[in-house]
Write a structure and sequence with these properties.
about 140 residues
């Protein structure tokens, strides 16, 4: 099903359009079953193989905590200016983007530069808003 309508069989799929429509109609009677079948057949995802919400939450927490430590690290090691933290954060953004490329169809450098740009833009907006409202770092 796409867009709430039964998907027609394409030539070469081995199922006549009329039969495919009937199968889609029957499978769509149970939304949970239809979702599972479409996830498996169209996206290649088996919902039974997904991690538990607890594992996802704990790994997300750990990732955010580790990511937050990266720009603070220079200060923990004695830095007194903003630039070491900025450079380390930008490097971290690029590396995270490059690692994400392993699960996408993009090249490592494109994903790295994309993450660097988006994260840098978000940090720049945050810095600008902090300056606008009278708070400053450094």
């Amino acid at each position: 099903m796409r867009g709430g309508r039964a998907r027609r069989a394409l030539p070469g799929e081995g199922v006549e359009p009329k039969l495919a429509g009937e199968v889609a109609r029957q499978l769509s009677k149970d939304p949970e079953q239809a979702l599972e079948i479409h996830a498996r057949e169209e996206l290649g995802i088996d919902p039974g193989d997904l991690p538990s919400p607890t594992v996802a939450a704990v790994s997300s927490f750990g990732s955010f905590a580790l990511g937050a430590l990266v720009p603070v690290l220079p200060y923990l090691l004695g830095a007194s200016t903003l630039w070491p933290a900025v450079l380390l954060a930008l490097l971290g953004l690029f590396l995270c983007g490059a690692v994400v490329a392993k699960v996408t169809a993009r090249t490592w450098w494109y994903s790295g530069l994309r993450q660097l740009f988006l994260g840098g833009a978000a940090a720049g907006v945050t810095y600008a808003l902090g300056t606008l409202f009278g708070t400053a770092v450094g």
